[in-house]
Each structure stands twice: as C-alpha cells, then as structure tokens.
Amino acid sequence: MNLMMTILLTTLIPLILITFNHLAPKTSPDMEKLSPYECGFSPPENARLPLSIQFFLIAIFFLLFDLEIALLLPVPWALNTSMTTTWMLLLIFLLTLGLWYEWSQGALDWTK
C-alpha cells in the first residue's frame, strides 16, 4: 500500500505540473524586460563584457579549498589507521605545494 501510494504520487505530481505548465498562458517578454537592470537606468556599456581571468582563478581556488575541507572533514573519525593519516598529509602537502607554486608565479597578485 505504501509503495503504491509513493509511486502514484511521484507520477501524478509531475504530470499535474506539466499539464498546468502547458495550460498556462504563454508570455512574450518585451525588450525592456530583456535588458539588464542597472539601478533604474540604462547601462552605459555592454553588460556582456568578459571578466578578468583573476576572478576565475580565485573562484577555482575557492572551489579547490572548499573541496579540500569536504575531504578532510571525516578525517577525525577515521584516524584509526596510519593509511588515513598518510593520505590526509599527502593531500595537505599537495595543496600547499600547489598554492606555493601559484603564489611564487604571481598568479595571486591582483596588480601587475
């Protein structure tokens, strides 16, 4: 009974939402709604200018060290083997080595 109810609901709810989407009136946005919003006035230049590569580099570093934190969070509960400690120290060493290399190459300097 419980499984049948779950299957019924997981098929019925998406079907209802799809039907409602098809029955809803179609809207066509005008150019004013498609233009980028810049505090109430027209943007002085093109809003699609490429960002500096420094922003992408900082974002990649953030993701890398965020991943490091996610990988190192369960380490205190798994420290019962020397293999876990070895892998943890190797990961920290490699990330520190990579950070040192980027820093020595000047990739983290905002002004050049």
How would you characterize the overall build of this protein?
The protein is mostly helical and 112 residues long. It has a domain at 51-105. It has four helices and no strands. It is flat. The model has no long low-confidence stretch (mean pLDDT 81).
Element order, helices and strands? Answer: HHHH
Mass-distribution shape: flat
Overall residue-averaged pLDDT value: 81
Structural class: mainly alpha
Number of strand segments:
0
Helix content: 55-70%
Low-confidence stretches: none
Which percent band covers the strand fraction? under 5%
Largest sheet, in brief, is: none
**In DSSP terms, counting alpha (H) and pi (I) runs of 4 or more, how many helices?**
4
EC number: 7.1.1.2
Pfam families: Oxidored_q4 (PF00507)
Organism: Phrynocephalus axillaris (toad-headed agama)
GO molecular function: NADH dehydrogenase (ubiquinone) activity
Identify the notable features of this structure and list them briefly.
mainly alpha, transmembrane, NADH_UbQ/plastoQ_OxRdtase_su3, membrane, NAD, ubiquinone
